[in-house]
From TrEMBL:
<dbReference type="InterPro" id="IPR002197">
    <property type="entry name" value="HTH_Fis"/>
</dbReference>
<dbReference type="InterPro" id="IPR058031">
    <property type="entry name" value="AAA_lid_NorR"/>
</dbReference>
<dbReference type="InterPro" id="IPR025943">
    <property type="entry name" value="Sigma_54_int_dom_ATP-bd_2"/>
</dbReference>
<dbReference type="InterPro" id="IPR003593">
    <property type="entry name" value="AAA+_ATPase"/>
</dbReference>
<keyword id="KW-0597">Phosphoprotein</keyword>
<dbReference type="GO" id="GO:0000160">
    <property type="term" value="P:phosphorelay signal transduction system"/>
</dbReference>
<keyword id="KW-0547">Nucleotide-binding</keyword>
<dbReference type="Pfam" id="PF25601">
    <property type="entry name" value="AAA_lid_14"/>
</dbReference>
<dbReference type="InterPro" id="IPR014264">
    <property type="entry name" value="PEP-CTERM_resp_reg"/>
</dbReference>
<dbReference type="Pfam" id="PF00072">
    <property type="entry name" value="Response_reg"/>
</dbReference>
<keyword id="KW-0067">ATP-binding</keyword>
<keyword id="KW-0804">Transcription</keyword>
<dbReference type="GO" id="GO:0043565">
    <property type="term" value="F:sequence-specific DNA binding"/>
</dbReference>
<dbReference type="InterPro" id="IPR027417">
    <property type="entry name" value="P-loop_NTPase"/>
</dbReference>
<dbReference type="InterPro" id="IPR002078">
    <property type="entry name" value="Sigma_54_int"/>
</dbReference>
<feature type="domain" description="Response regulatory">
    <location>
        <begin position="8"/>
        <end position="125"/>
    </location>
</feature>
<dbReference type="Pfam" id="PF00158">
    <property type="entry name" value="Sigma54_activat"/>
</dbReference>
């Protein structure tokens, strides 16, 4: 990724003499040059410049501004965070203002006064560096939950709830499809509580055979059954003082549901084969992707246990329903894979990013994490593309869950686009430009849809 303290400057200028002069003047920076829109786009993709100095008169319209304006728009849709400084002729103020409307950051007149240009560049570097730091801070602190990245309003509500109930002894059950981050939330409940320095013990009720589950949970005394060669404590006892996370609680065998209920009511256990009652102080957090209420109706889950473990339910939405999270998480995982494997993949191709946003991610965040890990390792280019991502693009057409009223569809699309633009730019002016609307209109829409800004 771009080093914000050592900026890269892309100069887009078709006048060779001026180009040389600028390169010579800015020899303390990393400079890339381009003399056409196509070259500028290729260079922007490859080097992610911080600043772009761009002439408005570019071929095939060197005496007009049409190509220059198009170049600004294309560069900004590719690199919404870069700062474009437009070079204009003395009498081109109107064009300069149009360029600013399109998203350019500033303009300066030709012939170039290098002292003025130096001042502008220094200011732009400072602003860009601050914005970049804020963007990074916002991503890591938006949820204020360690290891949980989100910008989705529903998820941010979940994070608020987690912070509120973490310090309490409430028994929570986290509901949601596989891979949505239920264990991340369970760990957050532990880490944000006073029990944080005590153990967090997780047990996956679906992964342990029924006949071993009781000894796994409650432990056993020596000689309790053949093979019990020494006294062994179970997960509940091992979690003493901390948190016990019962994952896939819907798979708990009925015989053990009674024993678990007794433990939750009396807070004592007996090891298998033992007679002594052992007092235990643990906070219990459960999770499931099953519908416990219908399991109660079919007689597969005890109603009394349900009420014990669901003093508070925390519902985690699937990734496909979260606004802005697909892009945010994809970038987060790509950064992580880059770091962990010493790679330097700069981002996604436009096609790949569209595919990431259109795909439903049935395996949720886990699927995305794994997919990006393998794709990045296969990637030999600067940008991760469709060849590595291997996501099938959705066929055109209307799925049943798209059959909403026109108003609902529009509202959903507006909220999604606004949240994504803000997540991508972390700057309301740039977001408005990216969306092709004015800043006041963006404010009105944020207010209308009650979109949170932090
Ligand atoms: N919001 C998030 N930000 C970053 N990483 C996340 C997020 N949510 C989930 N993950 C990562 O995705 C993976 C799956 O998350 P987790 O195990 O918590 O899901 P789960 O809902 O408990 O899955 P299962 O139901 O299969 O047990 C983990 O590696 C986790 O770190």
């Amino acid at each position: 990724m771009n080093n914000i303290d050592q900026p890269t400057i892309l100069i887009v200028e078709d006048d060779e003499g001026l180009l040389k002069q600028l390169c010579w003047h800015f020899d303390q920076y990393e400079i890339i040059t381009a003399s056409t829109r196509a070259e500028a786009l290729t260079a922007a993709k490859q080097y992610t410049p911080t600043i772009i100095l761009q002439d408005l008169g570019l071929p095939p319209d060197p005496d007009g501004v049409s190509e220059g304006m198009k170049c600004i728009q294309s560069l900004l849709s590719l690199q919404p965070n870069c700062k474009i400084l437009v070079m204009t002729g003395r009498s081109e103020e109107k064009n300069a203002l149009r360029a600013i409307e399109l998203g350019a950051y500033d303009f300066f007149p030709k012939p170039i006064n290098t002292d003025t240009l130096d001042l502008i560049i220094e200011r732009v570097i400072r602003v860009h560096s601050l914005e970049e730091k804020n963007r990074q801070k916002r991503i890591s602190s938006s949820s204020s939950i360690p290891n949980l990245i989100t910008a989705d309003p529903t998820m941010l509500d979940v994070c608020n709830l987690v912070r509120k109930i973490a310090p309490t002894p409430i028994t929570c059950t986290i509901l949601g499809e596989s891979g949505v981050g239920k264990e991340v939330i369970a760990k957050a409940l532990h880490n944000l509580s006073e029990r944080a320095d005590k153990p967090f013990m997780a047990i996956n009720c679906a992964a342990i055979p029924d006949n071993l589950m009781e000894s796994e949970l409650f432990g056993y005394e020596k000689g309790a059954f053949s093979g019990a060669i020494k006294q062994t404590i179970g997960k509940i006892e091992a979690a003493e003082g901390g948190t016990l996370f019962l994952d896939e609680i819907g798979d708990m065998p009925p015989s053990l549901q009674v024993k678990l209920l007794r433990f939750l009511q009396q807070r004592v256990i007996q090891r298998v084969g033992g007679v002594k009652e052992i007092e235990i102080d643990v906070r219990v957090v459960c999770a499931t992707n099953k519908n416990l209420k219908s399991m109660i109706e079919s007689g597969d889950f005890r109603e009394d246990l349900f009420y014990r473990i669901c003093e508070m339910e925390i519902d985690i939405p699937p990734l496909r329903n979260r606004q802005g999270d697909k892009t945010l998480l994809a970038r987060h995982f790509l950064d992580r894979v880059n770091q962990e494997n010493n790679l330097n993949i700069k981002g996604f191709t436009e096609e790949a990013l569209n595919a990431i946003n259109q795909y439903d991610w049935p395996g949720n965040v886990r699927e995305m994490e794994n997919r990006l890990k393998t794709s990045a390792i296969m990637c030999n280019n600067n940008y991760l593309g469709m060849d590595e991502l291997l996501i099938e693009q959705k066929a055109e057409g209307v799925s049943t869950d798209q059959l909403k009223t026109l108003k609902e569809t529009r509202t959903h699309a507006e909220i999604g686009a606004i949240t994504q633009a803000i997540a991508a730019t972390n700057n309301l002016s740039a977001a408005a430009k990216l969306l092709g609307i004015s800043r006041p209109t963006l404010y009105d829409m944020i207010k209308k849809h009650e979109i949170p800004l932090s």
